[in-house]
Amino acid sequence: MILSETTLHDLILRIVAAAGSDASETAIVADHLLRANLTGHDSHGAGMLATYMQSIKAGLLKPNTAVSKVTDSGAILVFDGGRGYGQRVAREAMEQAIARCRETGVVLMALRNAHHIGRIGSYGEQSIEAGLISLHFVNVTDHPPLVTAHNGGAARFLTNPICFAIPGTDKTPPALLDMATSKVALGKARVALYAGKQLPEGSLIDADGQPTTDPRVLMAEPRGALRPCGAYTGYGIAFFCELLAGALTGGGTMQPGNPRHGSIVNNMLTIVIDPARLVDLAFLRAEIDAMTAYVLSSPPAADADEDIMIAGEPERRALVKRRKEGIPMDDNTWKELLAIAADLGVKTGDLQTKG
Ligand code: NAD
Questions:
Q1: Is-above-0.85 flag for pTM?
Q2: Which residues lie closer than 8 Å to 290 by C-beta, 6 or more apart?
Q3: pLDDT digits over 192-247, tens only?
Q4: How many angstroms separate the CA atoms of 214 and 200, rounded?
């Protein structure tokens, strides 16, 4: 089925508000989830609400929790998310990091103990809007691991994402690399499962370590696992996410001595940079324009199935298309959202769908 932006936004707003969030938190969470759907990342959109509702019921996600500052030493800020909605606490931590960066030129910001912070690109977008550059390293804990090491036959990580963001110019759009370090993001495996689809060859193993394309192995016990992206290189980045985002923020890594309550906790180490403290901005913009044009002018490979793009372009294209044509949603996710709404006593009969 196809949903309009307004319908999906409305449904998310009603669910998050009925689950206890105040109006401002509800708006932040709903805007974040809707934008994930609009940019083509259904894995991190409204479909996450089922997980969030389970976490709230289990006391593992605490609505109406603001980020709290643990330490402030000038260019280094440490925050605790207090298991609040990650979309809210990470946004608040970024707002403070961006404000500080205007004074100090660079900020190292650590955020620990946030419930799922969603699409990391949304924090890169905050920096871009502020004219700043940011780098984000994230680990995922409080849940059994579901991603292997390179050559590993059992899971040792979750999908530890990274994100790099740099503003654009008047000729070139911003670049935003925002990616899971697993071959397929976990939420995309959920989307494939619900849509009755297989995952690409080489992306997962079953509980016996045998390669498979069936996403059901991730849900049934004993569980299979996703493989890292880029073989040993993606695995290397996932490992560094554990140490940078897990150990260095104080939030903890995926090592089994740390508790796993079954929810999703994200820890994030972020570097925010004011480029004007390093180079003349006219030079930087000219380099961005020239380098981007150089990459995009490359001839296509003989087996290319799409044009050459800079990171962030697929999301921009999805945003234009989905704003115009609506947001596709599989029947299982739609039914799940209606069931959540019914459970919370939320009325949905007036919501319009496009078939
Ligand atoms: P993806 O593979 O769709 O895209 C990854 C990156 O590659 C994006 O920056 C995209 O713009 C770029 N890209 C895609 N196709 C391209 C092409 N043909 N040419 C050039 N660039 C291209 O994303 P993903 O790895 O599946 O991650 C999906 C989302 O999941 C992200 O928003 C990520 O932050 C989120 N995520 C969150 C968590 C968490 O714990 N909060 C964990 C994992 C992933």
A1: yes
A2: none
A3: 988 899 999 999 999 999 999 999 999 889 999 999 999 999 999 999 999 999 99
A4: 9
By most ligand atoms within 8 Å of CB, the mutation choice from 116, 178, 266 for ligand 1 is: 178
Token match 């490992």: residue? 239
Distance in angstroms (rounded) separating the CA atoms of residues 103 and 107: 9
Over residues 167-180, mean pLDDT? 98
Burial label, 207 (beta-carbon count in 10 A; 0-12, 13-18, 19+): middle
Closest CA to 203 of 258, 147, 249, 254: 147
- Residue 190, pLDDT score: 84
Tokens of 155: 């899971």
**42 close to 34: Cβ distance less than 8 angstroms:** no
What's the token pair of residue 96? 């403070």
Q: Which two tokens stand for residue 7?
A: 């319908």
- Ligand 1: which residues within 6 Å by Cβ? 41, 43-44, 116-121, 138, 140, 159, 161, 176-180, 185, 188, 266, 306, 309, 311-312, 314-315
Ligand 1 centroid – CA 180 distance (Å): 6
Give the Å distance between the CA of 342 and the centre of ligand 1. 32
Compute the average pLDDT of residues 317-332: 96
